[in-house]
Every structure is written in C-alpha cells, then in structure tokens.
Design goal:
homotetramer, alpha/beta, Aminopeptidase, two-stranded antiparallel ribbon, 11 strands, 30% helix, globular, PGPEP1_Glu_AS (chains A, B, C, D), Peptidase_C15-like_sf (chains A, B, C, D)
Chain lengths: 217, 217, 217, 217
C-alpha cells in the first residue's frame, strides 16, 4: 500500500517585537490532517536566512512533498495575500533572529531574478472569495525571510518533477494587533479555514484558472 | 420578585451597497442573554434618520433600560471603536434608507453641541485589550445615522435618572470585506465576545478608570 | 483713520520627535499680510496645555482679532482638514512640551461639551477644492493641544461680539515625511496658498454655504 | 564634436477616470534639459500595452539613449517609489486605453521571470532623502502598463552594451487628489525636482551604494 502524497506546510518563528507568529499558530493546527488525499506535514522554520534554508532543505529531503506552501506574517496587511512571485534578493529591514542583516544579496547566486508561483493562485483566490474570506493576489513577498523561503521553495520545485510550490502571507492575529494602533488583523479560525481551502484547491488542480486579479501599481 | 435591569443593545439595518450590517449580525446573537444580572434586549434600528429616532423612542419607553449601547458599522476601521462623544449634527454623505440626506441639521434643535458617553469607556477599552481584542477610543462617530442615534441615546439618558448610554463602532465582517479592496474586517465571534465583555463592564462599573487613550489629532 | 480688522493666525512649536512644526512654518509666512482688508497677525503657540492657554489669552487681548484661525500638525493625514468641532476634553497620548499629560480633564471645567466652528467651513472647503487642493471636513481635532486651543478659541469667541473662530489641521511637510514610512505630506507652498484662500473666505463670508461633507463614521 | 549622451525619460497618457497623468505633467518639463552632461529626451507613451511597446521600440531606436527612466502614476502611494524589479506578466485590473485587458500573459514570451533595475536605486534613494523628499524602494511595479514598460525597458537594456534602465512611480498630483477621499498626493515641483536629482545620480554613478531599504513583506 503506497503512502499518500505529502503537502509540506511551513510557518515561521516570531520575529521583531512579536512573541508569536500567526503563521505557525495556524499552520501547526493542520499537521497530520488529510486534505484531498494528501497528508499535511506542518513544519516550523526559524526566521533567519541561513537557518531557514538549511531547515527547508532537510525537511524537503525527508518529507518529499508534492506540494510546498510557505506561510508568513505580513503585519499591516488586512487580508490573506497569495503571492504571485518571489525575487532573488535579500534586503533585510531588520536583523533576522540570528542577527544577520543581508543587503542586496542573492537568495541563490546565479539563480533566476524571480520565480512565479506554481500553485493555481487564481483558483485559490476564487475559492477563498467563495468562502467569504478577504484575499488578494500580491506581487511582492518583500525582501526578508518570507521572500527568501518563497524563492527557495520555488527553486527547489523547479528542479524536481511533480513538485509545486507557493507562498501565502497572512495578517496579524487580533491578539497581536491589540497594541499596534491601526493594524488590521484576522481571526485564527479564519486563517486555518483559508489554509484548508487553498490546499484542497492546490491538491486537486494543476492548471490555473484564467481570472484577472491585477494591480495598477 | 422584581424584574432584572435591562440593557438595550441596538444594531442597524444594512445601508449603502451592503446586504448585511455587522452590527445587527452580532447584536441579535445576544438577545435575551443575561450579562452581569442584566437582561439584554437586542433591537434592530432602521438606517434612517427619522425612523430610527421614532423606533428608539418607542423601544426605550417599552424596555426602560438602565444601559443603552448602540452598535454600528464603521466600514474601513480595523478595530472595535468605543465612541467618546456624539455631536449635534446630521451631515449625510449618502441618502439614508428612506432617501433623506440632511445637511448640517441638528439632531436635536436647541440641544447641546455634544454629549460625552456615560459608559465607562476606558474600563471597557482595558477589558477588551485584556481579551486580546483590537480596540480604540474614537473621538468621532461621524455625522450619519450612527452619530445621530448615539446623540439621541445620550440625550435620552441625560433626562432620566439611572440611565447610561454609549456607542460602539465595529469593522466590516470578513464576508463584506471580500469585495472591498484593502478593507479590514473582524470575525463575528470576536465582535460578539467584545460586546459581552463591554456590557459586563458597563453593568458593573459606573465610575470610569483613569486611563490615557488620547489621539494627537 | 481706523485700523483694519485683524486675523489672528496661530501655529505651534514642534512636539514629539519632530524638529519643525509645519503649522508654524506656513503660518509665519503670512504675518502682516493683508487678506480681504484684514491684517494677519501670525503668532506662535507652545505645544503645551497651560502655556498655550496663557499665550492665547494674552495675544487675543492684545490683537483683538475679529477672526481666529488655529493651525496644527496632523501627522498621518493626507489632506488639509478643516475642523468642524472642538470637544471639552484633554486626553494626552504623549506628554506636552512641559511634560504635562492630562487624562480626561476638561479644557474649561463647566464649559459646554463641544463648540462648533463659527467660520464658514463648507465655503472654505469649496474654495480649496476649486484651487485644486485636497481637503476634507474633519469631525475630530483629537484630544491633545490642538483640540484644546481650538476649544479655547471658540470659547473665547462665544463670549465676544463679532469674533469668529476655527481650526485647521495640515499634513506633514515632505521633509518630515522622509523618515516616516508611508506618511503622506503636503508642500509648504500649497499649505500657504490654502491658508490665504480660507482666510479670504472667512473674512468675506459669515453665513456658511449649505454643502454636504459628511462622513459615515 | 560628438553628441552628448541621451537620457530617455518617459511619461504616460491619463487612464481610468483621470484627465491628466502626473508622470507626463512632470516629465515634459524636463525635455531638452541638460543633466550631468546628458541631454534629456522626454517622451509620452500611451497607456496601452501594445501601443506603448511599439512606441518605446521606435523612440529607443531613434534616440539611442544610454539611460532609460520610465515614470508612471501610482495612485494611492504617498511617496516617490523607485522600482527595484519588473516582472514578466500582464494582468490588467482595468482595460488599457485601447480596451485591451490581458490576464496572466507574458510581457515577453520566453523572457526571464523578472529583471532588476540597472540604475543605482539605493544611491537615488539616498539622494532624494537628502533633498527632503519622501521616497521608498518598491518591490512591485504592479501588473499593468507601468510594469510592462519597466520590463520592456530592462529587456531592451539587457541586450545593448552601455544602456541602463529603471522605473519610478509617483503619487497623484494635489489637483487629482481633490476628489479622491484619503488619497495622498505630491506637488509637481517636488516631483520635477526629484526626477532631476535621480537622473543626475543615474548619469554619474553605475555601481550602486550598499544601503538597506528592505521590506518585511
């Protein structure tokens, strides 16, 4: 009897002034769940450029997932953000959790300038909208550890048959937004529901829908 | 055996392009609940200047509440907003649900320029923060039907012994924010929890805490 | 030969982390100018509750203006904000320039809860729009020294025949916004032009236009 | 006597509901100016995918610039935005000025996923900050005609010796922001000054400074 295909779902450790990271708070609740005949492996990545790279390589080697979805905190965003693209640059506005603060260094020296997500982002968008969850396609995952991991996942997937990858940013949790004037937030239940929905779509659909979701700038 | 004291909790009908109003979606779930020895009477008000006034007068006469809390939708706000003050003006950016669009008319001709909330707004703020819910003190309830009802509740309470009143704005629900780019939202469960918390504080505490919650502008 | 009527135009000293205050940078350029047969007296007020009150009383006594316009910095606002109302509360988010940080104290104990501007705010709004300058009617001047001075000006004017008063908030200058991520700003030339326009309207017109400029919340 | 090297500086025609485009309003004022021994050729591009491509190819062929700087309107941004990267996708939120609305099509089929700016963006950033002008490095130029032209300029430059290219987004002008609630704006004088500054830096400096300007998400 064959093992079910695996989804590797990653969250991050807290960084900056935060004591929790909403990505891990949500992602951990899906560990070992079955979604569309796939088994979810939730994995915690350190918010650190080099350590997260090593950790990602190890867990991909071990889990051999067919789908990788990285999840990260986007403090200040008001909705779920499905990332369209990851770029080959590290430009850290603050030190990562090991104190490293690279400026304008490549994620993968010699790698392509960018990778587009290979998950069906427009179908994921439509499925979340149908669930009544606020969501957008984002054209930047920033230049910190989130973009770095998004790029590395796509770089990995580009070299393996049958592996697809993508990244999603999520807002603060309400408990984080309490002490941050004006910061929007999203309930953890809604984030968990959103992850379940997008993973189901990603597991079932390879070719994306043709749906407009552009931005003017 | 005496009747328990009553809390009159009001929500509004949808307005503008909306088909639901989050205030009523949350408020209705608390109807008939017991909170700190008070019985909650949830009541739906029309989003219309004159009709809401008549309806409010009738229900106050009938229920004889000791506490009035008006709740309204503040589309675009990212957190619970406890209103500090209501002003004696109607200046409608869009027509109300009966088509009326007053410009710079008094809510109560000859009434004071403003009323301050007589609920313990700082204690309510602190209690919500302790619950992990994003909240702020707001210094304007706008100039539409929400401010109008807030002013009328406080005007009513100013004339009766033992009646206190206040108003709270709440964000869009996630299902409303879906089709509104950038609009923040809050889960209905969190709004309901927030209402329960602030009503408990309002029922138990008359003198407010001395806590800073100012804004520079 | 009689003296021309005077306009008292006030700006504030810098506060918080700022080394300039855009209100004074703009206001000072209009000192001694003639606008619609009035002479402008520009005066600098300290960003401090008690000192600004004393200073305002002294300068009003000395200048005997027929029009008072207070101007203050509203860091974070993107446009000129003509204030509709000032409320009788001090609730300081940060200490003023003398270290005082009042919480929920009255500006004038026993004074009315609020005063509405007695300048023709809608006509001023329309005149600025016609000039191509972004402007809004605001329903809160906050709870710091700006609102305090706005309230005091209106309190003063309420007690004198032929004296009218109002308040306008202005954005950061570009040079301040440089180091503040996302903060909008407005060029000093545009602010000075705006002040000239609104003072001309205020000098010429006593009864306001009936123009809608409301907000929903 | 040899001709001076040329800078090709482009602006766009108005689109959407706008009757002006701030990019062209500013860019046109620099036509034929000398900046750091270069001659500026200002050129108007249509806000249309195919027409702008043809127009760009023709003018590059004619002018043979050593520097290309595209400028475009970013309605809603509060500051000058120096773009770091352009991506190989067209995803139009609204129809372009010829009615075309491509969804998820490549700018250059078979081209790289993205190009990084080859102008010294960090040195340009620092020079604008020193001028007191609010500026940021942006990691997305959107997916409409601006990103399309940014990509095409960089694609062109990638194939020619000694040609460098980049893109800058600018806010609305104040006269546009008048009727757009909350929209920030920037004075035209400041935009023109900013363009002069960045072109001087671009003309004089090939290797960029190493300055952090990252974003977390």
């Amino acid at each position: 009897m064959s093992k079910p295909p695996r989804i590797l779902l990653t969250g991050f450790t807290p960084f900056g002034n935060e004591v929790i990271n909403p990505s891990w708070e949500a992602v951990r609740l899906l560990h070992d769940q079955r979604i569309a005949d796939h088994r979810v492996v939730a994995h915690l990545l350190p918010t650190a450029f080099e350590d997260s790279r090593r950790e990602l390589e190890a867990v991909v080697h071990e889990v051999e997932p067919s789908i990788l979805l990285g999840v990260g905190q986007a403090g200040g965003r008001s909705r779920l953000s499905i990332e369209r693209v990851a770029i080959n640059v590290q430009d850290a506005r603050l030190p990562d959790n090991t104190g490293a603060q690279p400026i304008d260094e490549a994620v993968v020296p010699g790698g392509p300038a960018a990778y587009f997500s290979t998950l069906p982002i427009k179908a994921m968008l439509a499925a979340l909208q149908a669930e009544g969850l606020p969501v957008e396609i984002s054209n930047t995952a920033g230049t910190f550890v989130c973009n770095h991991i998004a790029y590395l996942m796509l770089h990995e997937a580009a070299q393996r048959q049958g592996m697809r990858a993508g990244f999603m940013h999520i807002p603060y949790l309400p408990e984080q937004a309490v002490r941050l004037p004006q910061a929007p937030s999203m309930a953890k239940d809604d984030v968990v529901r959103a992850l379940t929905v997008v993973l189901r779509v990603a597991a079932r659909q390879v070719i994306d829908d043709r749906l407009g979701a552009g931005t003017l700038d």
